[in-house]
């Protein structure tokens, strides 16, 4: 006999089962749109730090209502230490990570730069191992899968960077957006096309993102208010980007002037969707399915951006870039599989560890064995 409360609960789970993957697909669509719009805005002369400052200002405005409503009880706990920690977080996660990514995007292509976004989990893992914040666990299947996935991702990146091979003629028309505009400024200036320098920028962006994730662990412990901390970090990142942007642009007011054009569209879209909406959707997905879940959808933006980059902007697709992207996708999923197994093993071992803590000394070895067996079984 079915209980009265089971049907609403089952309905809620069925809705969530649809909404969760749909929201992650939407996040990838936001990422893809932001990449293409940002590339166009940078091509027509917008400075990366100008785009970054305006984007995070809009992001702060959007997240602020959630912060004041959901985290209002923690506002009184904001002090100089918290602001300082969040400013360091903004330095790595906004100024360096996003700023270097914009410079790399300006010098390369959206399809090429999205490869490096998929490398961020792998680089974060490598950085955590070097700083001894995470164990390599080379003796376990999960650890070996993580190492193999990381190696395949690095190999795919090197292949996409160093080998072009035969140029492919896509089965779709190209340059649609540029043909529509007939605007010479829509094509990147010659001094913006520098794949080698762009690769250095994108590698630096991945490293900054990895350091930001590590800093975020401390931020979460010191000030566990995701909306309020995000709003403060966006404000701090905006201020830092303004200072650096003013120095880079030599105080030219024209660099900061926005009109009703493509640059304004890129700023509003990136701030509203790629910062505000994306943050809320990813936070919800992580709370329901864990931190690995959003990364499982990253390959969607890689494939879609490659197609739209060729379709709209006429970026040439080569055998090397396709093979490199394929290796990155394979390596990323191998890495995420290994990481997921490790997290499942840790979750399985936690109850046994708690039981072990409450048992007497005679039973401690048996509890330890039980925890280890549970972890090995899950791996």
From TrEMBL:
Residues 367-379 have a biased composition (Low complexity). It is a multi-pass membrane protein. Keywords: Membrane, Transmembrane, Transmembrane helix. InterPro entries: EamA_dom, EmrE-like, WAT1-related. The keyword Transmembrane applies. One of its GO terms (cellular component) is membrane. Residues 354-379 are annotated as: Disordered. It comes from the Eukaryota. It is found in: Membrane. The keyword Coiled coil does not apply. Residues 24-145, 197-335 form the EamA domain. Belongs to the drug/metabolite transporter (DMT) superfamily. Plant drug/metabolite exporter (P-DME) (TC 2.A.7.4) family. This is WAT1-related protein. It comes from Urochloa decumbens. The lineage of its organism: Eukaryota, Viridiplantae, Streptophyta, Embryophyta, Tracheophyta.
């Amino acid at each position: 006999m079915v209980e009265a409360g089971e049907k609403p609960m089952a309905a809620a789970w069925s809705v969530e089962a649809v909404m969760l993957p749909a929201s992650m697909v939407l996040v990838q669509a936001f990422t893809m749109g932001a990449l293409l719009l940002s590339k166009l805005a940078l091509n027509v002369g917008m400075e990366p730090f100008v785009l970054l400052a305006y984007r995070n200002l809009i992001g702060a405005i959007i997240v602020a209502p959630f912060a004041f409503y959901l985290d209002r009880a923690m506002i009184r706990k904001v002090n100089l230490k918290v602001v300082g920690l969040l400013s360091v977080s903004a330095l790595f996660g906004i100024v360096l990570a996003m700023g270097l990514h914009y410079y790399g995007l300006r010098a390369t292509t959206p399809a090429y730069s999205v490869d490096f976004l998929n490398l961020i989990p792998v680089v974060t893992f490598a950085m955590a191992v070097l700083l001894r914040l995470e164990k390599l666990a080379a003796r376990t299947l999960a650890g070996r899968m993580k190492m193999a996935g990381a190696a395949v991702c690095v190999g795919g990146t090197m292949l996409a960077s160093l080998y072009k091979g035969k140029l492919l003629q896509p089965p779709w028309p190209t340059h649609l957006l540029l043909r529509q505009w007939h605007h010479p400024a829509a094509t990147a200036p010659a001094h913006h096309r520098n794949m080698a320098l762009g690769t250095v920028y994108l590698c630096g962006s991945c490293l900054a993102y990895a350091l930001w994730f590590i800093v975020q662990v401390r931020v979460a412990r010191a000030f566990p208010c995701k909306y309020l901390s995000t709003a403060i970090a966006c404000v701090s990142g905006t201020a830092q980007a303004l200072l650096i942007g003013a120095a880079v642009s030599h105080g030219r007011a024209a660099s900061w002037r926005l009109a009703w054009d493509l640059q304004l569209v890129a700023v509003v879209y990136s701030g509203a969707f790629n910062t505000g909406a994306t943050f809320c959707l990813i936070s919800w997905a992580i709370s329901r399915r864990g931190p690995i879940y959003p990364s499982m959808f990253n390959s969607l933006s890689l494939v879609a951006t490659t197609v739209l980059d060729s379709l709209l902007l006429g970026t040439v697709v080569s055998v090397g870039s396709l093979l490199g992207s394929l290796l990155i996708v394979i390596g990323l999923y191998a890495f995420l599989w290994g990481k997921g197994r490790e997290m499942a093993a840790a979750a399985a071992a936690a109850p046994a560890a708690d039981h072990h803590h409450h048992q007497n000394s005679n039973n401690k070895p048996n509890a330890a064995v039980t925890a280890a067996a549970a972890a090995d079984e899950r791996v």
